[in-house]
C-alpha cells in the first residue's frame, strides 16, 4: 500500500506579513507534521516571531494561505488558540502571584474548572521540577525557574501544538539543559513542538526538522543532519594565524590542492571545510604554514548558516 503522509497540523503557502513598505515574512511555504518538533532557525529580525504570531492567531497575515489544525486563523482564532500552548519570547508571568496560582489562573482562562486546574497545576509543577517553589512568588524565582513556569503554564490547556519563541535565550548553560530535557520529554509524549531559536545547538538538540530563515525568507529546509550533509563538509579544521596573517594564510591554504572543499575567512580564524580535518592540518603544516592554534571538529548548523548567508549567526 502506498504510504500517505499524515495531514500537516500547520500548513503555510506564500505566507507573508508586511508592515507598511517593510516585508517581515516574505512568501514562505512550510508544513509541520503531527508529533514533529519543528524549528525556525535564524538571526534576530529574521521574521521568526512574526511567523509564530500569525500561527497563534494573534497577528493577521498580509497574504498567502495558513492553516492550523485544519482551521484558518483569520476566521477561527479562538478555536485555534484553545488548542495551542504558547511560550512567548519574554516571560509574562503574573509576578505577584505564586507559581501555583499562575498556573491555576491561566487554566481558568481556558474555562477549566477550579478542581481540574488545581490537579493539572500540581502535575505541571512536578513536570517543571518546581514543586518546592509552588508557594513562592513568581518574581522570586530564578530566570531558569521562571522559564520553566512559563512552559508549565503553556501546557495547562493540554495543547496539541506547543509554540516556544526562543525558549532558552538569556539562560545559563545548566538552566538550558534542564529546559531541553523537559522539552525532550514533551516531544517523546508526542506533543508537536514549534520552536524558534538563534542557537544552533538548541536546534540540533530539539528539532527533527527545521527551516533556516533570514530576512523573511527560507534559505533551506531539512533535518539538522541533512542540512549539514547538504551544505557543509564532514569536518572543519579551524586554524588561527594571528589577525594580520589570516587573510594571507587563507590564500595559501586554499592553494593547497585537494585540501579543502572551501575556506572561510573569519576575522579571528580560518575555517577549512574538508572531509578529513587531521589530514588537512598535516598538509597545512607540511607546507610550512604555522598556525598559532588549530582545532578539528565536526560540521554544525553554524557552518550551514555561514554557507547560506555568508554571515555568522553568533551575536
Ligand atoms: N509591529 C511591527 N511593526 C513594524 N515592524 C515590525 C513589527 N514587528 C516586527 N517588525 C519587524 O519585522 C522584522 C521581523 O521581526 P521578528 O520579531 O519577527 O523577528 P525574529 O526573527 O523573531 O527576531 P527576534 O528574535 O529579534 O524577535 C524585524 O525587522 C522587526 O523590526
Radius of gyration, taken over Cα atoms and rounded to an integer in Å: 23 Å
Low-confidence stretches: none
Pattern of helices and strands: EEEHEHEHHHEHEHEEHEHEEHEH
Architecture (CATH level 2) name of the largest domain = 3-Layer(aba) Sandwich
Ligand list: adenosine-5'-triphosphate
Helical content band: 25-40%
Distance between the termini: 49 Å
- What's the number of extended β-strand segments? 13
CATH class of the largest domain: Alpha Beta
Which overall shape is indicated by the principal axes computed on the Cα atoms? globular
CATH topology of the largest domain: Rossmann fold
Question: What is the typical, i.e. mean, pLDDT?
Answer: 91
**In the CATH hierarchy, what is the superfamily of the largest domain?**
P-loop containing nucleotide triphosphate hydrolases
Bin the strand percentage. Answer: 25-35%
Number of helices: 11
Q: In this structure, how is the largest beta sheet organized?
A: 6 strands, mixed
Subcellular location: Cell membrane
InterPro entries: AAA+_ATPase (IPR003593), ABC_transporter-like_ATP-bd (IPR003439), ABC_transporter-like_CS (IPR017871), ABC_transporter_ATP-binding (IPR050763), P-loop_NTPase (IPR027417)
Family: Belongs to the ABC transporter superfamily.
Keywords: Antibiotic resistance, ATP-binding, Cell membrane, Membrane, Nucleotide-binding, Translocase, Transport
Amino acid at each position: 500500500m502506498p504510504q500517505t503522509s499524515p495531514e500537516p497540523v500547520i500548513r503555510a503557502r506564500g505566507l507573508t506579513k508586511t508592515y507598511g513598505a517593510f516585508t517581515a515574512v516574505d512568501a514562505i511555504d512550510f508544513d509541520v507534521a503531527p508529533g514533529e518538533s519543528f524549528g525556525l532557525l535564524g538571526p534576530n529580525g529574521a521574521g521568526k516571531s512574526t511567523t509564530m504570531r500569525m500561527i497563534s492567531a494573534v497577528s493577521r497575515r498580509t497574504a498567502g494561505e495558513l492553516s492550523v489544525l485544519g482551521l484558518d486563523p483569520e476566521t477561527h482564532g479562538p478555536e485555534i488558540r484553545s488548542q495551542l500552548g504558547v511560550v512567548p519570547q519574554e516571560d509574562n508571568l503574573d509576578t505577584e502571584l505564586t507559581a501555583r496560582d499562575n498556573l491555576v489562573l491561566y487554566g481558568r482562562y481556558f474555562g477549566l474548572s477550579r478542581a481540574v486546574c488545581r490537579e493539572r497545576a500540581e502535575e505541571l509543577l512536578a513536570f517543571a521540577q518546581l514543586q518546592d517553589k509552588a508557594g513562592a512568588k513568581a518574581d522570586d524565582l530564578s530566570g531558569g525557574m521562571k522559564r520553566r513556569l512559563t512552559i508549565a503554564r503553556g501546557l495547562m490547556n493540554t495543547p496539541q501544538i506547543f509554540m516556544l519563541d526562543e525558549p532558552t535565550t538569556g539562560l545559563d548553560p545548566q538552566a538550558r539543559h534542564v529546559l531541553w530535557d523537559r522539552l525532550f520529554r514533551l516531544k517523546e509524549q508526542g506533543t508537536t513542538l514549534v520552536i524558534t531559536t538563534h542557537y544552533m545547538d538548541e536546534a540540533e538538540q530539539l528539532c527533527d526538522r527545521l527551516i533556516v530563515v533570514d530576512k523573511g525568507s527560507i534559505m533551506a529546509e531539512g533535518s539538522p543532519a541533512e542540512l549539514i550533509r547538504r551544505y557543509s563538509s564532514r569536518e572543519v579544521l579551524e586554524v588561527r594565524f594571528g589577525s594580520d596573517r589570516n587573510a594571507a594564510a587563507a590564500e595559501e591554504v586554499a592553494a593547497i590542492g585537494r585540501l579543502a572543499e572551501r575556506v572561510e575567512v573569519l576575522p579571528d580564524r580560518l575555517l577549512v571545510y574538508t572531509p578529513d580535518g587531521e589530514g588537512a592540518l598535516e598538509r597545512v603544516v607540511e607546507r610550512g604554514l604555522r598556525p598559532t592554534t588549530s582545532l578539528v571538529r565536526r560540521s554544525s548548523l553554524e557552518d550551514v548558516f555561514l554557507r547560506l548567508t555568508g554571515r555568522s549567526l553568533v551575536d
